[in-house]
Amino acid sequence: LSAMFNEEIKDIELQLKTKVDEIEDLLFPEDPLNERSVFLEIRAGTGGQEAALFVSDLLRMYTNYALKQGWKSALVSSSTTDLGGYKDAILSIEGKGVFGKLKKESGVHRVQRVPKTEGSGRIHTSTATVAVLPEVEEVEFSINPSDLRIDVYRASGAGGQHVNTTDSAVRITHIPTGVVVACQDERSQHKNKAKALKMLKSRLVSAQREKIDSELSQKRKELVGTGERSEKVRTYNFPQNRITDHQVNVTLSKLDMVLEGDLDEIIDALVAQEREERRNNPVLK
């Protein structure tokens, strides 16, 4: 009876925590963009070829994580290197709650390992930057067609006989801001144009949002007593098979598993941290 009683207490405490979280989510609403799909951009930073190879590792990690979450992912555009790395890569990830789980991935990701190009066995440090942009709904944001320059060209890369036979790839330039997006993952020029426009709107809205956040940053610092988070969000240490997320001070000794998409422990900690911040921080208007 005592064992049954203690087991029941654990179940009730878990139910209580769930209900408290639900109530606090109503009292302190989450970011309305959290349910959105995203464009996830990864770009090689310092480190040359090694940084480009690290981008390919991150691309695999996020693709596998999306698969495990039941989300749909597709490589929108990329620029490869001769060693099999990527100078940059953009993933479209569609699903429920994608931005809420991935938005804290934005920032500088640092890798420590012996590069394939290193003959003496020395450990090098390289970086890649990640930007997570929520998809914009059509009714939210409109672009003047006269502000756009649209170029079409032949797609490159894998794709069989269809590649390089038609001008299906699309590049769109937003003239007022100079923002450029490109898409070539679809066979149809029309579909590539639609996806590129989606990406462009996401970038422009994100830039607009960052400008507002920047204007509020000083007020936020005065109210809550904290500055902006460090640009470096995570360190991937290959020799020790260790990964450290600096935003939540979580360290795991299973880097190999994380790179295969096992990101749940880190993502859950980041989501929990955001919920705690919503509870404790005053609302800024």
Can you describe what's shown?
By secondary structure, the protein is of the alpha+beta class. Strand 10 and strand 11 (250-252) form a beta hairpin. The strands form two sheets. Strands 2-3-1-5-4-9-10-11 form an eight-stranded mixed beta sheet. Strands 6-7-8 form a three-stranded antiparallel beta sheet, with helices on one face. It has helices at 2-27, 49-69, 98-102, 189-224, 255-258, 264-280, and strands spanning 38-44, 72-80, 86-94, 107-113, 124-134, 148-153, 169-174, 179-183, 232-237, 242-245, 250-252. Helices cover 38% and strands 26% of the residues. The radius of gyration is 22 Å and the shape is globular. The protein contains six helices and eleven strands. The model is unreliable at 159-163 and 218-230 (pLDDT under 50). The longest helix has 36 residues, at 189-224.
Short recap of the structure:
The chain is of the alpha+beta class and 285 residues long. The chain is built from six helices and eleven strands. The N and C termini lie far apart (54 Å).
Spatial order of the strands in the main sheet? 2-3-1-5-4-9-10-11
- The total count of helices amounts to 6
Q: Point out poorly predicted stretches.
A: 159-163, 218-230
Helix content: 25-40%
From N to C, what is the helix and strand string?
Answer: HEHEEHEEEEEHEEEHH
